[in-house]
Amino acid sequence: MSVAGRPTIEEPRLTTRQVRRRRVPRHVVVALPLALAGLISLMVSGNAFRPFERITTLEARMASKSDFFRDPEVQRLLLEHGLRVDIHRLGSRGIATQSLKGMDVVFPSGQPAAKLVLDRQERSVRSVRPFVTPLVLGTFRDYADTLVKAGVATPQQAPDGGPTLYYNLDMRAFMGLLDGRAGEKTTADQDGDGTLEGADTWNGIGFDQAGGRSNSGRVLVRTSSVCESNSAGTYLSLLAFVANRNSTPGTQNVNDPQLARDAVTDLAAKIRPLINLQGMWADEQADSYLSDLGESIAPISLIYEHQYLAHQIAYQDTHGRQDIERVLLYPTPYALTEPQLISLTDEGDRLVRLVEQDEELRDRAIELGFRVRFNGEDGTSERLNTYLRDHGIQVPVPNRDETKSYEPDLNVLERIINYVGSCPPPAQDTP
Amino acid sequence: MKRPPAVLAAALVLTLLGTLVSACTRDAEHITLRVLASPELADVEPLLDELEEDTGVKLEMAYEATADLAGQPAASGRSAYDLAWVASDRSFLLRVQDSGGRLTRPESTAVMRSPVVVGIERDLADLLRAGASGGRISWADVADAAAEGRLRFGMADPRRSDTGRAALVGVATAAAGTGSALREQDVSCDRLRGFRSGQTLTGASSRELISTYVEHQGDAEALIAHEAELLALNASGKLREPLEIVHPDDGMVLSDFPLLLLDPGRREAYGKVVDWLLGADVQKKLMERTFRRPVNQDVELSAPLRASVGNALSFPDRLSIVEQLVDDYGDPVHAIGDQVVFVLDFSTSMRGERIADLRAAFAGLSGADQSATGKFARFYRGERLTVVRFGGRVLEERTVTVRSDADLRTLDRIVTGGGFDDATAVWSALDRGYRIATDAVRAAPERPVAIVLMTDGENNTGLSYEEFLRRHERLGSAADAVPTFPVQFGEADAAALKRAAAATGGRMVDAGLSSLSDAFKEIRGCH
């Protein structure tokens, strides 16, 4: 059992920034303008501070949480502490299953992948879970309204009575739409418009009744690869939880391992089509969802809440209003993801400590849409909500039905993932 | 006293200058990356000098990328290329997935987007729109017009070009009509024969296709390619009349022109290139020069790109599905029409409603069926159709090669005009069908031939099933190439028909489950 899953408790240390004192001879001041010119050009070329302070570059592998480390303000704050993070992008489960050689830190987007990484470490490692963010479905207003008409989604009340950004999604009812069947039939008149249409297609549930628009595609959620990404894996565990009548898969028949295994395989077989009907996965769901062609690429994309909120915050900054076309579906039951920054080297430890302790970095995380943990506070959401309210962005209301989907035991989840995705075996590091 | 500080100052200045200069030269140090690129990306070449100026990275492009980047990433040792820049890396990624962990997928960044759509001559587009459901042209309408001989088109060869492959996947997904990605069962039958009958132009890449089209504008009324390529072609002034760009209503496959890092040792330079390509000003230049859509949201779309692209179709999740599709499509231009021998039961029990159903089924396949699947499954130009009507003996037989509507009307007259007979000689009739089919195979071995046997009763005269089988065996290899697809109707002997299907490599369809029309549609293309 790894000790790193527990929060690390240690006496506070001094910041690692080194201030070098130099004794400057008076005459050197004469050369200062030139030196400044040099400095400015260095700053322009991005090499600022290099000659004066040693900058440590950390090799880091991460998925969607690179949004945090790619933020210019975060980069600036880290540079002040002499750290720069070189990001290798890879899906979280990909991080966990591939060789970690040469990496200083990894930042899987959720606990299953983090546990896989931690289980592979021979020494105890430092890690931090700085924030959480729920798994959500990003969609567009006309599609969300179609789901409301189909009776699977309910809009959250916008405070000013305007168009809402958030909808609650009844996951069990929604899964009935994902199987491509009305009862046993593949065509039906589900929206009662008098024509037979493909069962569970967007037009089939009434999308084409809203004036001139048409989509004969199935109601599907686009995800990234289940073999590689945390979001898709977490989505699978959500589907499995609901398909298992809102209880955690693998917790039944614990006394009969064979029976328990069979039950998990049956469950995986049941939810496999809900994923596989989409055909080939696509990386970077948030990028395509938030792009100009987002609505053409996929009516519903699996993303994280922070990606959406960061978009709304940026949109508000540039346009002075909310993006009311893009809306979120909050599934009930819900799934919360908890990214974990894991250090693999001494240099990596420095970054973990910093993220753990630096208030400015945490404040910045809020501005990027994360629900940040602060010591001495109960919830993770209050500060984020305040920030959103102050910036003219509707605050999402947690579902009244607080059913949380619990991730199954790691082995059980791995079996479900491998069954659904037929994933290649993980690489083995030779330590 | 004054000297040492001055020297110190001078030294400091020199050091700073030194740092500055070395920093500059390090940035300006030239790195050359070898790039395996899709031929259609040759249009970015003029921007590459700027890339070199701004980043010090020179891209040496080899426009030789094939549909699934065969040979990449090199399984062992160093690749001949540092990067790959292709229209789409989907086939490649599916191949990596199939390698069972032997190949590692490289880092990949989408640079631009463009849907695979169809450009149609304006008059024809107007005509198609007038007949299309909701006034929105779909792939099914394109296939219908191709089968009817009204639309001839060019498309890159899916065996070699990823653009051709994306186009084929798009059309096939629309033909399957499931609203989701193609599965094995969707490609087990080739539903694209009518569509393919309209293809007159091709090329190893869509770049080659387009230059062929410019030379032979009279040979096709439509081109299937990226929206970007069609817009560029229209803007080139090389066309007698511009093509109208149609975003088919039943969806399109979207290419995202990813840049892949094949040699992980070149990560730093790769990062520079990606950052440069994704910057708003370069994205704008790319859009203006190549008509591809920017991935950077800060770039405002230029006028020709404001049209909605419609809905993206999903790509299959297994390479085997794509390969089956490409194999079935075969050589795009030298495809030859099939021959189908319809052996039809005209015993008296067929009289009335049943014969009306049969007639409706043939009318549907002749172009009356306006459903999307009907438009793909219909009879097409160049297809040879034989009708054998039988009762206690063969009543009539006739073969037509479809060249015009008149041929289809001839067919209709044969199916509906003739009289009935009291007995049912199923196996004698099928034996006759095989003689026609094997003659056809011997005359033109490259032409696929199949038999559709429709009956509504049990065999009560003529050859026994065993005798039929003996004769069938004597026909030898020519007969082995011809499967029989029995359609069970009314009181037909399902078990016997299943046996015949199994013995000849066909499959039985039960018309009682749906209708005769659906049963005929279901087996179209399965031979």
From TrEMBL, chain A:
Keyword Transmembrane helix: yes
Keywords of the record: Membrane, Transmembrane, Transmembrane helix
Top-level taxon in the UniProt lineage: Bacteria
TM annotation in the entry: 28-49
Protein name, per record: Uncharacterized protein
From TrEMBL, chain B:
Listed GO MF terms: thiamine binding; thiamine pyrophosphate binding
GO BP field: thiamine transport
Pfam name, any one: SBP_bac_11
Record GO cellular component, one term: outer membrane-bounded periplasmic space
Signal peptide: 1-23
InterPro entries given in the database record: VWF_A, vWFA_dom_sf
Keywords attached to this entry: Signal
Residue ranges annotated for the VWFA domain, each copy included: 339-523
Name of the protein this chain belongs to: VWA domain-containing protein
The organism of origin for this protein: Streptomyces aurantiogriseus
Upper taxonomic lineage: Bacteria, Bacillati, Actinomycetota, Actinomycetes, Kitasatosporales
